[in-house]
Every structure is written in C-alpha cells, then in structure tokens.
Amino acid sequence: EPESTEVRVTKQPSSTVYPNVPNLSDRKPKGQGPAEIHVSEDKDSCSIAQEIVQGSSGVRVGLVCFTAHGEPPSGQTPDLGEPREASLYLRTTYLQALQDMPRQLHADVGDVLAAGSVVLTQDVCILRGPVQDGARWLPDPVRVDVLTAAIQRHPRCDVQGQYARIAEKADVAKTVDHIFACAAANDVEVLIFPPLGVNGAAGCHHPAADAGDLLRKAILEHGQHVPRVWVCQEFPGQLKSSWATFASAVRSGREPLEHRELVPLTASPYLRPGWGEPCLSAKGQFSFKVPLRYRGRQRAVPPLGKP
Q1: Is the backbone of residue 36 left (phi > 0), alpha (psi -120 to 50) or beta?
Q2: CA 58, CA 60: separation in Å to the nearest integer?
Q3: Burial zone of 76 (CB within 10 Å; 0-12 exposed, 13-18 middle, 19+ buried)
Q4: How many CB atoms lie within 10 A of CB 203?
Q5: Which residues make Cβ contacts (< 8 Å) with residue 267, sequence separation at least 6?
Q6: In this structure, are residues 151 and 196 in contact, taking their beta carbons and an 8 Å threshold?
Q7: What is the pTM of this model?
Q8: Domain ranges, ordered by start, for the chain
Q9: Which segments carry the region annotation Disordered (predicted)?
Q10: What would you report as the CA-atom Rg of the chain, rounded to the nearest whole angstrom?
Q11: What is the DSSP letter of 256?
Q12: Could you tell me which of 248, 296, 298, 305 has the C-alpha nearest to residue 278?
C-alpha cells in the first residue's frame, strides 16, 4: 500500500515598516522587575525560539535580524557558503518574506533600512531543525516574528573595545531601542538577539565590550515591556575569542575603562631629547634636569602650562 502523505499549509508572512519609534506610553507593563537575560553559546536563535514556543503555549517570540547599512538583508541574494550563518533563511519562511517585501512595503528594502526604519515580519514559520543535524522537517512548525534593522558596517573603535565616535554609538543605541519599541508595540514577550555586529556577524565589525554593554542597558531599560531576552551566536564558535567579552558585557556590563592622559607628559613641547624625567618642585611646579651641554645656552625652562 502507498504511504500516506500529510500536507500542511503555512500562513503567508507579512511585513510592516516602522519608520518611527512606536509610542508605548499607553501600554501596560508585562513585568514588574528587571528583564531576564539569557545568554546561549551553543544554540542559534531558531532553536531557542522553537524550544520557547513549544514549551509555553501562546507566548509570542521575536527574532532580530541585523544587516549592514547600505545593503538589503543577505537573504535576498543568499550566500550559502557557510549555511550555519544562513540558518534563518534555510530553516524558516523568512526567505520567502524577503522576496515579497518590496511588494508589501511599496519601497526598496535597502532604502527602507538605510533610512533607520525597522521592518517587522509576522507569521514566519520555522520549518526545519538545526542545519548541523541535517535540517530535518519539523512535525509541528513554530510561528515567530522577525524584526530586521540595519547597523553600521565599520564603526570606529579604540584599543579598549569601545566606540570611538559618540555619534556612531548613539546611532546603534537608537536602532536597538527602536527594535525593542516595535517588539513591545506588537506584544512580543521574548526577544532573541544575534551578536550585535561583533567580529563579522551580519558583515559588521562592532567592538565586543561596548556592543554587549549597550545591549544590556537596552534590555534593562525595556524590561517592563519585553520581560525576557536571549542573546546567542548564530552557530558555536562564530565570534571566536570575542564571544567571552561580548557575553560577559551582556550579563554584567563591560569592564571599567582605563582612563589615560590625552597627551603623555613625555610628548610635552617643553621636553627635548636627552633631558631627564620631570620632577615636582617644592612649589608644585614641574622642573627638568637639563644636560650640562645645554646649561648657560638656553633660557630657563618655564613651568608647564606657562609660556
């Protein structure tokens, strides 16, 4: 006898653009205390969403998808050289939603994201299991929302793992706040973030320590509307050595900065080659030991800060 075949029809994903941050003043808080922060090193966002939805009936889960400024989401021209990075496109109906976005938004997706908007795609179904396990078809598909936003590809960073430009850091913080507001406005209870553009994630290179700390502050600020937040890699080992720094900053904040002088004393215009180290006089002024060959030829060295 021929084997029976079961056919299930999934709902068509639909996308909506949010050019402005939604107003949450009239929405009731969903949580009383601070938000729950979960960090996962070995599970991707689709697997986490599948476990949450199957374990708690009726909970609404949102997956965050980042892309670099000036480019549409990579799913429109998918590069499957590393299928683990394309898990969202391989395992869900989000790839179909990307193809339909220009028609549903009546605009080019790249231009919409470049303007700072957030695109919310509802009724995205997770159809397959993890790629490393063969991406098997799931007997019970899971439905989630996907929030897509663009971030800068190469913000300037310093040696201490922080954004070197205040405006660039503020732009990232604004985008993350926009994502939380869109999620809260659509009753999303659990939000799952991939790495915030760290170490090549989403084609971007953001500082691990500052990006993790920025994300942590946003989670705590919006905890009353989005009570649970997960942060994960797209696959184990994606961030390599940067993961420990990023995960620690998300859990407990970044390490304190080491504040250094803007101009080292040895770079002072009052120092010349061969002069000794500066010392503090009894009057509280800096003085220098001048070599014998210069004595009698040069005028007295003025105190620092005076002509």
Answers
A1: beta
A2: 6
A3: middle
A4: 17
A5: none
A6: yes
A7: 0.80
A8: 14-252, 263-307
A9: 1-36
A10: 26
A11: P
A12: 305
Q: Do residues 62 and 190 make contact, with C-beta atoms less than 8 angstroms apart?
A: yes
Amino acid identity at 116: G
What's at 251, amino acid-wise? R
Tokens encoding 291: 């070599």
φ/ψ of 142, rounded to 5, equals: -110, 135
Q: How many CA atoms lie within 13 A of 25 on its CB side?
A: 1
To the question of domain 14-252 being in CATH 3.40.220.10, the answer is yes
Residues 275 and 291: beta-carbon distance below 8 Å: yes
> Which residue type is seen at 137?
W
DSSP code for 24: -
Reduced to 3 states, what is the DSSP secondary structure of residue 149? strand
- In sequence order, the 6+-apart residues with CB closer than 8 A to the CB of 51 are none
Q: Are 151 and 143 in contact (CB under 8 A)?
A: no
Distances (CA, A) of 204 to 26, 27, 33, 40, 127: 36, 34, 33, 21, 28
